[in-house]
């Protein structure tokens, strides 16, 4: 199999990022591939001033999709990431101790948290992995979602502007390190389920990343097609409980490109990339595994999948599934 050629005198493409009020997050609207139906539904919720919950497996692009929707509208976004250590104070805000010592509990001594910032500005509070937040923090959201107001100790009531809303993501309940959202919280959200994209859309995403990040005159097609096929092969495999997402395909493709640039043969580069990128992103079915260790099982299966992927690249995915 021929190795991709290195492009000569390649010009790097400029990258652009639009800062939101959260001062984080890429300008994703123009980079979104597919997802037209999901984007339409999110924008519909925003238009109706209804908070929305995006649910889907790890790595399918829930965060990317949410950022794309808010970027498209140019709305201020205030982001928090779900964490079991996240506190109510971080969400709503806190008093600065030195200022309190000098002037007491005055308004100027209070630093707004992301929830209060979003409410005051009529912006969007984006919560990544809502179901990783402690239940007490989730409960703070209830009056903000329901009545568009919250009560701050010593400062009184904060009312949100009408445009305020929440966009949140969560992984399915069966994933480790996630908890169940209460009925009270769920009742305040509209649900949009995010699944895996088509092979052609996943190929377009990975292909664009390889072209952007690596000076390859040829071979980007091959790298992207192989990486996507490999990731998709892990979904629904009888020995794999949780398959790989597009994030894994991106990692395989980028690592393969780097190894090829360093002079490796394609098959070896692809195998090395698979062994590095997939073990942390899939979960094996271990019942009846015998005496072999998890690492041995993983390496054996990944080598098998990588060889099968390379041996069937010229066949349509639908045709391969019939075998």
What can you tell me about this protein's structure?
- This protein is α/β, with parallel strands linked by helices and 323 residues long.
- It has 2 domains: 29-193, 3-Layer(aba) Sandwich (Rossmann fold), CATH 3.40.50.300; 199-313, Helicase, Ruva Protein, domain 3 (Orthogonal Bundle), CATH 1.10.8.
- The chain has 13 helices and 11 strands.
- It has helices at residues 36-47, 62-73, 88-92, 97-103, 114-121, 135-146, 183-186, 199-213, 220-233, 246-261, 266-277, 294-311, 317-322; strands at residues 52-55, 77-81, 93-95, 110-112, 124-128, 149-152, 156-159, 165-170, 190-193, 240-242, 283-284.
- The strands form 4 sheets. It has a 5-stranded parallel β-sheet with strand order 2-5-8-1-9. A two-stranded antiparallel ribbon has the order 3-4. The protein has a two-stranded antiparallel ribbon with strand order 6-7.
- A hairpin with a 3-residue loop joins strand 6 and strand 7.
- The protein starts with 35 loop residues before the first helix and ends with a helix.
Quickly name the level 1 CATH class of the largest domain: Alpha Beta
Question: Quick one: how many beta strands?
Answer: 11
Principal-axes shape call: elongated
CATH architecture of the largest domain: 3-Layer(aba) Sandwich
Average residue-wise pLDDT: 86
How far the N terminus sits from the C terminus, by CA atoms, comes to 25 Å
How many helices? The count is 13
Q: Which spans have pLDDT < 50 for at least 5 consecutive residues? A: 5-30
Any idea how many domains?
2
The side-by-side strand order for the widest beta sheet comes to 2-5-8-1-9
What sequence of helices (H) and strands (E) makes up the elements?
Answer: HEHEHEHEHEHEEEHEHHEHHEHH
The CATH superfamily of the largest domain turns out to be P-loop containing nucleotide triphosphate hydrolases
Q: Strand pairing plus helix content: what structural class?
A: alpha/beta
Q: Under CATH, the topology of the largest domain is which?
A: Rossmann fold
Radius of gyration: 23 Å
Report the helical percentage.
40-55%
């Amino acid at each position: 199999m021929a190795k991709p050629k290195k492009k000569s005198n390649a010009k790097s493409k400029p990258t652009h990022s639009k800062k939101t009020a959260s001062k984080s997050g890429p300008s994703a609207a123009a980079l979104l591939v597919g997802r037209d139906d999901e984007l339409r539904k999110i924008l519909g919720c925003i238009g109706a001033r209804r908070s929305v919950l995006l649910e889907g497996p790890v790595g399918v692009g829930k965060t990317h999709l949410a950022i794309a929707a808010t970027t498209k509208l140019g709305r201020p976004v205030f982001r928090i990431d779900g964490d079991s250590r996240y506190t109510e104070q971080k969400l709503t805000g806190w008093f600065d101790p030195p200022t309190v010592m000098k002037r007491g509990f005055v308004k100027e001594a209070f630093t707004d948290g992301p929830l209060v910032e979003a409410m005051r500005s009529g912006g969007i509070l984006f919560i990544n992995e809502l179901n990783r937040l402690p239940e007490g923090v989730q409960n703070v959201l209830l009056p903000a979602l329901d009545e568009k107001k919250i009560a701050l100790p010593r400062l009184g009531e904060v009312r949100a502007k009408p445009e305020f809303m929440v966009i949140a993501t969560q992984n399915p309940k069966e994933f480790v390190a996630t908890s169940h959202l209460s009925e009270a919280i769920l009742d305040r959200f509209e649900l949009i389920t995010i699944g895996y994209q088509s092979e052609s859309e996943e190929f377009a995403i990975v292909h664009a990343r390889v072209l952007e990040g690596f000076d390859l005159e040829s071979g980007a097609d091959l790298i992207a097609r192989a990486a996507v096929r490999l990731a998709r092969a892990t979904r629904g495999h009888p020995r794999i409980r949780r398959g790989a997402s597009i994030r894994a395909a991106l990692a395989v493709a980028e690592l393969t490109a780097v190894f090829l640039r360093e002079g490796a043969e394609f098959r070896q580069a692809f195998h090395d990339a698979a062994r590095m990128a997939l073990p942390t992103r899939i979960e094996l079915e271990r019942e009846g595994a015998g005496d072999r260790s998890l690492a041995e099982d993983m390496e054996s299966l990944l080598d098998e999948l990588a060889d099968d992927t390379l041996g069937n690249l010229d066949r349509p995915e639908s045709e391969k599934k019939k075998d």
